[in-house]
Amino acid sequence: MRAFLKPASSRAIRSPFVPQSAPRHFVNAARLRLKEDKPQTPEEVEHAKNEQMKGNKDARKELSSSSEASLHADKEQPADKESHIEDLQQQTAGKSEREHPHGKAEK
Question: Where do the segments described as Disordered lie (predicted)?
């Protein structure tokens, strides 16, 4: 019975030493102005602002973020859906051929 009443050594009670990690500092990333995926020069920013002030609706595409442009494209309701789909397919094929000319299928 005496074994149960014997106090444990202080060494057994202490928790193991855990080293602290290095402190983390705040990091500032480069600010992307117009599109999130493309850095813009101050001249491009000023040009886009001037076009928007003139009321040019197409200038909004430059000022919108990639996510806003995708959302706008999803909501678009073309008058003739069949020709619109064909136009998009031709644009995609043309872009693929321009970017990857070696991957063009031979006929």
Answer: 1-107
